[in-house]
Amino acid sequence: MATGVTAHADVTTSFSQFKLQQAPFDIRYFIYTIKDKKTIIVESQGSRDKTYEDFMAAFPENDCRYGLIDLDFETVDGRPTSKLVFISWNPDTASIRPKMLFSGSKEAIKAALPGVGIHINATDFAELDMETSILPVVRKFVV
């Protein structure tokens, strides 16, 4: 893409199984990073029993990451549901080079994760607050 960064084949393979909740990817979330300024890789993952708070805690305070979570929530009328949510974590406190690299490489990972319709950009932890930031966006995609 614009930065020459590409997604590793494991990103696409694990995502395909994650969408279907097939073992060993019947998990809650993935955290992705860029290795050697060339390749997007899976940095960590959270087991199915992890929460949204665990997902947020996996983002470093002063460095960029991408995250994908299978988010369980209730619709406005009280029905339980879930959606895949992609988050581009680009904190204001990160150095300028990683911010530029992650921003310019976002399309590469989005292309490796087909079918994820909810994309959120966050620059501080307040923008990751479940009640005030995430749920209002996610609920727009629920019929």
Automatic annotation (TrEMBL):
GO MF term list: actin binding
Domain of life: Eukaryota
Family, as annotated: Belongs to the actin-binding proteins ADF family.
Identification of the protein by name: ADF-H domain-containing protein
Keywords in alphabetical order: Actin-binding
GO biological process: actin filament depolymerization
Pfam families noted in UniProt: Cofilin_ADF
Domain ADF-H residue range list: 2-138
CDD domains linked to this entry: ADF_cofilin_like
Entry's Gene Ontology cellular component terms: actin cytoskeleton
